[in-house]
Design a protein that fits this description.
By secondary structure, the protein is an alpha/beta fold. It has five helices and six strands, in the order αβαβααββββα. Strands 1, 2, 3, 4, 5 and 6 form a six-stranded mixed β-sheet that branches.
Length: 212
């Protein structure tokens, strides 16, 4: 029974030591972010102006910058969802926003090709043809909350040409090697524009939503 007073004395002392250590550790620990990192869903769209692989190429470029200030939705998931939603014409922005929300993303980025031209010139004997190709990529940034397009970014027009035999039909754009090559040339430029613009848009949109 004589030990009880000493136990009662040690308990407050131990509690005080634990509290002091916790205070020191808390001061040394990095401050928590005020909110989670914003998430962006990159997809092909609008569907009537898509080059196969464009969204993948742009996302691959974005992923080369780890400190970009936002995370990216799974490219694999985006390919599945974009093929099961109506991303045509005026319905594209709303569908893109809905896809983004389903993945917990704050912004949707639709990657399309506003410029996709192929001019075919036949040789005099029509045995060969020259194919002149022009491609530009565009990113339409959609606010996942309001379905509104809040920014549009476009690359310079990339141009290329080839001469080939005229004994086969002209391939579809998605199978045209020159179209794909020009798209891949444009992807880094569009990625750089997005890296510069998205953090600003995220800050403005999130601040605006929190103020409301």
């Amino acid at each position: 029974m004589q030990r009880l007073p000493s136990r009662r004395l040690r308990s407050p002392l131990a509690a005080a030591l634990v509290a002091a250590v916790a205070l020191v550790l808390g001061a040394c620990a990095p401050a928590a972010a005020p909110q989670g990192e914003a998430k962006v869903a990159v997809m092909n769209g609008p569907a009537q102006a898509v080059i196969t692989g464009a969204a993948e190429a742009v996302q691959a470029e974005l992923e080369k910058t780890p400190e970009r200030g936002f995370s990216l939705a799974s490219a694999f998931t985006m390919r599945f969802l974009e093929s099961h939603n109506d991303l045509f014409h005026s319905r594209a922005a709303g569908s893109a926003a809905r896809i983004a929300r389903s993945e917990g993303a704050d912004l949707a980025v639709m990657i399309g090709a506003p410029v996709l031209e192929r001019v075919v010139t036949l040789s005099a004997d029509e045995a060969s043809r020259r194919v002149d190709v022009s491609v530009a990529l565009e990113a339409q940034v959609v606010d996942a909350t309001t379905d509104a397009i809040v920014q549009t970014l476009r690359t310079r027009t990339q141009q290329g040409s080839r001469v080939e035999a005229n004994d086969l039909p002209l391939p579809e754009p998605s199978d045209d090697a020159t179209v794909i090559a020009l798209m891949q040339q444009a992807a880094p430029e569009l990625s750089h524009s997005l890296l510069a613009e998205l953090p600003y848009l995220i800050k403005q949109l999130l601040i605006g939503s929190s103020d409301g």
